[in-house]
Design brief:
Layout lengths: L6 H11 L1 H11 L16 H14 L9 E5 L5 H10 L2 E6 L2 H13 L6 E5 L12 E7 L8 H11 E10 L2 E2 L5 H10 L8 H10 L3 E7 L1 H17 L10 H19 L3 E2 L1 E6 L4
Parallel strand pairs: 1-2, 1-4, 2-3, 4-5
Antiparallel strand pairs: 5-9, 6-8, 7-9
Helix pairs in contact: 3-4, 7-10, 9-10
Length: 280
């Protein structure tokens, strides 16, 4: 079935379907969890730090079991979906716009013996293809920023959540401490006009009937993560020959430096956001 995407979402879809991006995330990030990590040391392995983020975010969830349905929006290669399915025995719907990532997700989930628990769905979180009040948890990691309609994404999340359900996510955000010009290098690199903010998400969630449980700020981890990825990309550059173009690597290193500078200037925010839909 042909699907229609907003311009911003289509841009992200084309990017994540590209050979350059796919090989970068596979060989530098590990091809499992492609989001910001929680580091215990300056030079910790990226994959280990990224998996720690999944574990800590999952710790925020209430006790869920095999009868629960979890929706992971912007699920990437499905690392979190597999972790949640294995840890809780729950069914996870992995909604993602990149067919290339989704195919690898299906393969990895089957190889892990979790194909029966992880359902991979091609689509956008701006129009979630699920019924109202049909999932117990909505989960997302560093994906919602790619939407130019973040208010619509939150409305969709609220729509599909059951009463009493939980919404947990991370997202690179603006802090509200800087002018737009200070963020322009970051925004231009990822083809966005704005970033969300903790205040935006709290206000928008409230407008859609969700209540804030917690905002756990961990912005220094954003700075450390992008610095660590830049270090690893530079160190592995020769090994990426024939897999990732030189032009892509140069653009990525510039973009990573912009993220680090904006973070060090206190223009960015990152951490765990946790909302709950009140029980009926």
């Amino acid at each position: 079935m042909s699907q229609s995407y907003s311009d911003v979402v289509q841009t992200a879809r084309d990017y994540y379907n590209s050979e350059d991006a796919d090989n970068f995330y596979l060989h530098i990030w590990g091809g499992e969890d492609i989001h910001i990590g929680l580091y215990q040391s300056e030079r910790e392995d990226i994959a280990a730090a990224s998996r720690r983020t999944v574990e800590r975010l999952a710790d925020r969830l209430p006790a869920i079991g095999a009868d629960a349905r979890v929706l992971d929006i912007g699920s990437g290669y499905g690392g979190a979906a597999r972790y949640l399915a294995k840890r809780f025995g729950c069914k996870v719907i992995a909604l993602n716009l990149s067919e290339k990532e989704n195919q690898r997700n299906r393969e990895l989930s089957t190889d892990a013996g979790l194909g029966g628990l992880v359902e991979v769905v091609d689509g956008s979180f701006e129009a979630i293809p699920l019924e109202d009040a049909s999932v117990d948890v909505v989960w997302s990691q560093d994906a919602i920023l790619h939407s130019g309609r973040r208010d619509q994404v939150i409305a969709e999340v609220a729509r599909v959540l059951k009463p009493g359900g939980h919404f947990v996510f991370t997202d690179p955000m603006e802090s509200g401490n800087c002018a737009r010009a200070d963020l322009e290098p970051v925004l231009a690199r990822i083809h966005l006009e704005t970033l969300g903010s903790p205040q935006f998400y709290e206000k928008t969630a409230k407008a859609n009937g969700l209540e804030l449980v917690a905002w756990e700020e961990k912005t220094p981890q954003l700075i450390r993560h992008y610095s660590r990825v830049a270090e690893e990309l530079s160190a592995q550059r020769a090994n990426l020959a024939g897999r990732v173009s030189e032009a892509y690597i140069d653009r990525m290193l510039t973009g990573l430096a912009n993220w680090v500078r904006a973070g060090e200037a206190s223009c960015l925010a990152w951490g765990f956001l946790h909302f709950r839909k009140p029980a009926a």
